[in-house]
Amino acid sequence: MPALPPPADNPKLSAPEKDTPTFSPDHISVVYVLGGPGAGKGTQCANLVRDYGFKHLSAGDLLRAEQDRPDSQFGNMIKEYIADGKIVPMEVTVQLLENAMTEKIDNQKTGDGKGGDGRFLIDGEGPFPQSYYISPSVWLDGRTNDLKHSSKKGFPRQMDQALKFEESVCPSKFTLFFDCPEDVMQERLINRGKTSGRSDDNAESIKKRFRTFVETSMPVVDYFEKGGKVVKVSATKGPEEIYEEVKKRMAERGFEMTK
C-alpha cells in the first residue's frame, strides 16, 4: 500500500507541536485493550463500560463517522484514501481519538477521572494501537466500506501510533491484555462462524488474523510490559470467570466499580 507523505508535505495534517499531552493521566484514565481474535475483548469491554463507567472508543468507528460528517476537516482526505487504498494517516487517527475524548469529557462537565467521567477504553480491535488501511475493494453487502488490518504495515508503525497518542493526547494507565492460546481462539471463532454470518470466521481467514495480531499487537504488548504497564488476564475460561479475574486486576490498579 502507498505510504503517507511526511506531515510537512501534507498541510492537512499540520498541527502545532505540544510540549505536554492534552490530558493528564492524573485526571484522565486511558486503558488499551488488546488480545487475539476470539479472545473475548468485546464482551469484557462491554462489562467494563457497564460496571466501571468507561467510554469505549473505536478508531475504526470514528473514521467511518468522520468521512461522512458535514464540514469535516478530514472527511475528504479519508474518502481519498479509500479510493486509492492508501494507509490511513496516523495523525488523523490520533486527532479523532483526542476529539472524541474532548467531546465526551465536555458532555460530562468534568474530567476529574472520578465516577467514570474520565475513563476511556481504546480497543485494539478497532484498530488502535495497530496500523490499518482502507481498501476500496471491500464492501459489506454494498452498504458500507470496512476497515481492514494490514499485516504488511506492522511494526514499527503500530508502535509509533501508540507512542504518538501517549506523547500528544494522554499517557495510558496500562494495557489490559487478554492472553489466550491460538487453538482456543480458533475453536471459538469457528464455532461462532456457524451462526455469525461473518465472512472472516473461517479457517483461512482466522489464520491470517492470528498472524496479523502477532505482527501488529504483540510488539505493543511487549513494549508496555517492559515498563510494568501490562495487566495480563488469562482468557481461556468462560466469560463470567474471565470477568471475575478482570475485576480483581482492576482493583489492584485502583479502579472501583461505579455501577
Order of helices and strands: EHEHHHEEEHEHHHEH
Q: Kindly report the spatial arrangement of strands forming the biggest sheet.
A: 2-3-1-6-7
Question: What is the gyration radius calculated from CA atoms?
Answer: 18 Å
Count of helical segments?
A: 9
What does the main sheet amount to?
A: 5 strands, parallel
Shape: globular
End-to-end CA span: 45 Å
Helix percentage: 40-55%
Percentage beta strand: 15-25%
What is the gist of this entry?
Helix content is 44%, strand content 16%. The protein has 259 residues and is α/β, with parallel strands linked by helices.
Structural write-up:
It is globular, with a radius of gyration of 18 Å. 44% of the residues lie in helices and 16% in strands. The protein has nine helices and seven strands. α2 packs across α4 and α6 crosses α7 (203-216). It has helices at residues 41-52, 59-67, 75-84, 90-108, 157-168, 182-196, 203-216, 218-226, 239-252, and strands at residues 29-35, 55-57, 119-123, 132-140, 144-149, 174-179, 230-234. It is an alpha/beta fold. A five-stranded parallel beta sheet has the order 2-3-1-6-7, sandwiched between helices. A two-stranded antiparallel ribbon has the order 4-5. A hairpin with a 3-residue loop joins β4 and β5 (144-149).
